[in-house]
Batch of 2 targets.
Target 1
Amino acid sequence: MAEWDLRKLRILRTLRERGTVTATAEALHMTPSAVSQQLTNLAAQLGVPLLEAQGRRVRLTDAARLVLAHTEPVFEQLERADAALAAYARGEAGEVRVGAFPTAVPALVVPAVRALRATHPQVTVRVREAEAAEAYDLLAAGEVDLALSLAAEAPSAADPRFTHVPLLADPLDVALPPDHPLASAAGLTLTDLAAEPWIFGGSGPWSDITRRACEAAGFSPHQGHSATGWTAILAMVEAGMGVALVPRTAAGRRAGVVLRELGTDRPVRHVVAAVRRGAGEAPAVARVLHALRHAADPEPER
């Protein structure tokens, strides 16, 4: 098989375009003797004559034109590769793997992906649903590039492995059955519900959030039922089996459930994004972080 040298092929291509060795040398910032030497070496590598004398000038042989006809698609593909690399360097292209806890996917990740499709369609986001604490394990292992989690589940800010980016303060509303006596009460607070059976998981972040919120309001919640999925929790609330705290960004809300904002003791969960330290400077990752920030706070900057 012939030995193909792209640099020498580019010189041959330029000679075809410029017509003379001197003009080729000027275009490529070479000397005429260097151009001639490189083309002589290329002819030896390919095993065919590439130039023939025409008076005081040279012209391309049929073999040279055949070589260029077959290498033109290569040059075209290299131009595309250059353009793709430039887009990648500007953050206009690339793949970013995002690990996110379940309610963050529809509330933050999906709007961010939609926005990126409109502004940077060559930035691809691959989503992996993971519980809040698991997202950090995936990030540390290099299985995702960006993790969305709850601040309560995040490693310490002093952890040298990660950089944290606050995204959202997500208020927690209380879910009540429509016929509950307090469903339309004015100024509802958590303490008004101290005697109610509460529905939350037996362990994990949502159990901790519910217990901490109630304890901050001055009581320890009685766990009437244990569930972790919002479909199950809201179905039980609708059936009058208890009440529950629900993040405002949670998906799957039911028509048969009343969601009430709480008063002064309203709890909030904080959502953060995290990247491996230094990785946030990667252009595509920075694009995704920007889109996530906008999804969390779509109001224009003032």
Target 2
Amino acid sequence: MDRFSEIRAFVCVAELGSFAAAAERLELSRAMVTKLVSSLEGRLGVRLMHRTTRRLSLTEAGETYLGQAGGLLAELDDLDARLSHGASSPVGRLRVSAPVSFGMRYLGRVVAGFHQQYPQIEVELNLNDRRVDLVEEGFDLGLRVSNLSDSSLVARRLARIRDLVVAAPSYLQRCGTPATPAELAEHQCLLYALTTQPNLWDFTAPDGSSGRVKVKGMLRANNGDILTDAAIHGMGVILQPRFLLEQALAEGTLVPLLGDYDWHCLDLSAVYPARRHVPGKVRAFVDYLQQFFQ
């Protein structure tokens, strides 16, 4: 059997959790999808799925295989769509999800420039700091400022975003200036609630070693602008992406701390659902984003 057909059948079953749903999406019979997955397991010599009459689950080997195979198929589909002369034209409505603070700083001018090149694409932009399920909520594309782990999405990295530790001069006059990351544990730190562990701040020391400090504070918020404003008014120390801090740093209302240390860096990525044929409007917008942020 065709190797890629086997892999595609497995990935589709794993993502949808059903042989019947996978058969419908792939426009194959359920028996053929079952045969393709069984052939893949036979070729690999491992069981990838546990099957019962009521549920389907992946084995440990299946989880590992899905993590790699799903991304490879998505990249191949994207490449095929880019090179195909029959790819759909960049027209229609494009629904985009993006973080609030990042979107407010950049996406107005991005969309304006994109519209000049593609006037037939109508952009619907939704700003939200929560992790949006693109497929469930009907978005064509999402922008993420994070380190991605979702193998069901195609991701293209647009830029690296550096985090900085900063505080207001008024706070430092009142509470002192930390000389090492460990001293942050004794300071008031303002925490970004949407990270997995808001009170754990990772860093790399000048000698290249990695470290982590556990911090605490009286404010936890799900928006970086709120934390930045509170820091400007002397409430405490923050760790935030540099793009949020540029104006305050230029005006001197916030100053960088521990400049010899590198803090957690994040990827700015464009992500979209893995599809057999990526719409022309999605490809056009991702290409424009890549050019803009370069």
